[in-house]
Amino acid sequence: MQKILITGANRGLGLEFTRQYAAEGWHIIACCRSPESADELNTLAAGNSNIIVEKLDVADFAAIDQLGVKYKDTPIDILLNNAGIIGPIPIDENIARQHFGQMEYDIWEDVMRVNCYAPMKLTETFMGNVAASNQKKIICISSSVGSISEMNIPGVAYASSKTALNRAMTIAARELKPKGVIVGLFCPGYVKTRMDAFGYAMVEIEESISLLRPMIEALTLEDSGSFRGHDGRIIGW
Ligand SMILES: NC(=O)c1ccc[n+]([C@@H]2O[C@H](COP(=O)([O-])OP(=O)(O)OC[C@H]3O[C@@H](n4cnc5c(N)ncnc54)[C@H](OP(=O)(O)O)[C@@H]3O)[C@@H](O)[C@H]2O)c1
Beta-carbon neighbour count of residue 95 at 10 Å? Predict the structure, then answer.
């Protein structure tokens, strides 16, 4: 039995990860912040007893601790840090509240907490569960916009949160290597989820996850701390 914990499992990439891993017989701890309105996830779980839906707002670190206690003795093959927020973008309110010169610092804090601190908190909480499993993997859904060498975008909060996530997770990778735990950072491509507010995305959700899962499966300890795109390309820091 293989087990995966997925954050943000109610929609977008997290829901598709849940769907595809469930179809392959995995046991899934499907976390979302509002299970009462997670209709698609609940329907999926109703038809598959291997999916357990858990309420988790990843910004609530006490809730992460509580979930850690609940699953204290459960090996988890993959911790999948997927939940993320982009923060306000001009299309939302016609003002650039995360652009240089107009920064709103409470927004930046929220984005950093969800996209960077929470994956680290989840990693610290569940690293023992992962180390006790067969696959021993911690996967974070990052973004190429966090790449300083490759991307140039105006949104400070989102981009810097992914840059910080990448740096934090390369440190976690080094610390966890002696325990045999593999850490992987992946950009899913520009995917047609709700995050694609501009409607420019070219990659279908199903396609992105179908490409990412074999790469996650193939990840070895030698690859730990690497950052790849959905096309398998190593992305520059
Ligand atoms: N789509 C892209 O083109 C793209 C590109 C690069 C990276 N990514 C990354 O891919 C990941 C998934 O994004 P997506 O494209 O699937 O976007 P999405 O459709 O907007 O989904 C985001 C998911 O994160 C959840 N979430 C947000 N804040 C949360 C919190 N505090 N606690 C728990 N869950 C929370 C959302 O739950 P609610 O329904 O409760 O809000 C939702 O399930 C993110 O980390 C994102 O940065 C996406």
Answer: 12
CATH fold of the domain at 3-228: Rossmann fold (3.40.50)
CB neighbours of 20 closer than 8 A, spacing ≥ 6? Answer: 209, 210, 213
pLDDT in tens, 164-220: 999 999 999 999 999 999 999 999 999 999 999 788 999 999 999 999 999 999 999
Task: Give the nearest ligand 1 atom to 81 CA.
Answer: 45
pTM over 0.85: yes
Distance 85 CA to ligand 1 centre (A): 5
Q: Which of 81, 78, 67 is nearest to 2 (CA)?
A: 78
SS3 category, 123: helix
Q: Whose CA is nearest to atom 10 of ligand 1?
A: 141
Q: How far is 48 from 41, CA to CA, in rounded Å? A: 11
pLDDT band per the 50, 70, 90 thresholds, residue 108? very high
- Where are the chain's structural domains? 3-228
> Is the CB of residue 7 less than 8 Å from the CB of residue 14?
yes
